[in-house]
Amino acid sequence: MKSNIERVYKMSFAGVYPHYIQKAEKKGRTKEEVDEIIRWLTGYDQTSLQRQLDNKTNIENFFAEAPQIHPNASKITGVICGYRVEDIEDKLMQQVRYLDKLIDELAKGKAMEKILRQ
Predict the structure, then answer these.
(1) Disulfide-capable partner of 49 in 28, 44, 89, 110 (CB 3.0 to 4.6 Å)?
(2) Residues near 111 by Cβ (< 8 Å), separated by ≥ 6?
(3) Residue 48: count of CB within 10 angstroms of its CB
(4) Which Gene3D superfamilies match (predicted)?
(5) Spatial separation of the C-alpha atoms in residues 54 and 7, rounded to whole Å
(6) Are 55 and 65 in contact (CB under 8 A)?
(7) pLDDT tens per residue, the chain (118 residues)?
(8) pTM to 2 decimal places
C-alpha cells in the first residue's frame, strides 16, 4: 500500500491534469472550471498554477507548495475510489482525494457554488 501512495506522490501533476480536464469536458464542463476548482482548493493563482504545470511539479510538491488549502476543504465529504475523503488520515492523500472528489462533482453536473462549498 505504502509504495502505491509514494508512486502517486511522485507523479507529475501535469500528467494528471489533462485527465481532470478530459473528465470534465466529456460531461460538458470546461478547463476553466477545472482550473477554478484547483485554484479554490490550493490557493494558486492562474499564473502560479501554470508554472507548476510547466515545471512538471510532482503531486507531493504541488500540494506542499500550495499557497493555502482552502479553509472550507474540510466540508468536502463523500466517497472517492472507495474511501471516505473525510476519514483519510494521510493529509496529502486527503488533499489529492479532495481534488478528485471536486472534479467528480463537476463532471456530475453540480453547480460551481456547491462544488466550491459557498
Answers:
(1) 44
(2) none
(3) 15
(4) uncharacterized protein sp1917 domain
(5) 20
(6) no
(7) 567 888 889 999 999 999 999 999 999 999 999 999 999 999 999 999 999 999 999 999 999 999 999 999 999 999 998 889 999 999 999 999 999 999 999 999 999 999 999 8
(8) 0.94
Sketch the domain layout of the chain as residue ranges. Answer: 2-115
Distance CA(103)–CA(24), nearest Å, equals 7
> What is 2-115's CATH topology?
Helicase, Ruva Protein; domain 3 (1.10.8)
Burial 6-27 (b: 16+ CB within 10 A, else e): eeebeebbeebbeebbebbeee
Q: Which three cell numbers stand for residue 23?
A: 473528465
Q: Where does the chain have alpha helices with state H? A: 2-10, 13-26, 31-42, 46-54, 59-64, 91-107, 112-115
Rg of the Cα atoms in the chain? 13
